[in-house]
Predict the 3D structure of the following.
Amino acid sequence: MSAPQSQYRRGDRLVVTIVDVAEKNRCVAKTDEGAVLFVEGMVAIGDVVDVEVRKRKRSYYEATVVEVVTPAATRTQPACAHFGICGGCKWQHVGYPEQLRLKQKLVTDALERIGHFPQPPVEPVLPSERVYGYRNKVDLDFSNERFLLAEELNLTDAELPKPRDFALGFHRSGFFRKVIDIDQCHIASEVMNEALDCTRGFFQNRGTSVYSTVDHTGFLRNLVLRTAEATQQFMVYLVTSSRDEALMGSYREALLDSLGDRLTTLVNGVTERKNQVAYAENLHIDHGPGIITEHLGDLAFDIAPNAFFQTNSRQALRLYQTVKNLAALAPEEQVLDLYCGTGTIGLFIADACAGVTGFDVESSAIANARVNAERNQRPHAQFYVEDLREIGPALLKHGIPRKPGVVITDPPRAGMHEDTTRSLADLKPDRIVYVSCNPASLARDAALLRDLAGYQLQTVIPVDLFPHTYHVESVALLQR
């Protein structure tokens, strides 16, 4: 970017048109003089907005929205009463077809700008069947500091519609301690919202203490709600600072009164960690088996309270089927599954090839992958804890001398470590199927594979697992 054409100062007000989307939930506007502004706020492409300049950078300005002067035609009415405050669904004001177009554009722009792929072969985004009620897991936090709305700031405790010192919901973006008390989450299921309401009422009426991140005292920490789409099994996972068996017994009865036989299991996780992460080392099962079972295709997966599983089950199935289609496996081929996690992708494609070898650095994930392989009768799928930076020696270590024909890699948001990418390039498999949750890291890694080993980007298929957010999964096929 060139230097800004005009000299605006902090606090200056401008009326501009939003022309593009950017990363980190920001949008782009340009003035008539050509100055570029990165705008924060709930805006859409085509909106004419009144903005206030916050900061001047070398080649652009940062600004925040004051008012939408003329809304874009692609806008829609958000379903959620917490929209604009809760940071979870920042695209709820954008019509779903436009969301899909923007997600495709985000992938294309990253490949062009970062990877220097001219006219990258990005397909239209595979849409989610449901845009509301699609999540199979919701993580909520307790707080003794409720985030107050603007209209509540000057009210006394007696005038407040909700207690000041009790909240169960989501953190306001940028506020570490304060939590928005959520009445209903529209991307969660009906039974999740019923359990949320029951839990809030049960503990609030008893005056149960809430964990404080300041002095590290208090009982209630997190509430995790999980549903299995295929079986409709439902888990309530309550994380606390200590164990109170009598209280948990009463809580169990309250949940059963509210949910009946829809409650499959209740687990109380106890932790003394000084953070708000919804994870506990000590698990106590207060109702049911302590797990729920999900099905993807003909595979069954037991989901424990702390286990990772894709949060949109229906779209996860489409994602894995897309991987399988692009891999185009022959019955005699061997597959290497990098960043394999609990083995879901490797097991899903295992029926189409001679064998799958999965590597991951997390020992707990590999343990779960082995359990999943045994349960689903996939003895030719083997999983190992390995440092992924030297792939060739790791294969030899496990008696796999022949290079795999296909490598599937599903790295975290940061992408593959550069050493892993270089090691993969040295391995020179015929095809690489790259599953990405971050277009920027996909573009970077695909470019390095191209430059090191001549891999060509054959196709990229984005899959929408997270409607109303800017997040998008992508499956890319690279071939030599």
About this structure: Residues 137-303 form a domain with the OB fold (Dihydrolipoamide Acetyltransferase, E2P) fold (CATH 2.40.50.1070). Residues 279 and 306 are 6 Å apart (CA to CA).
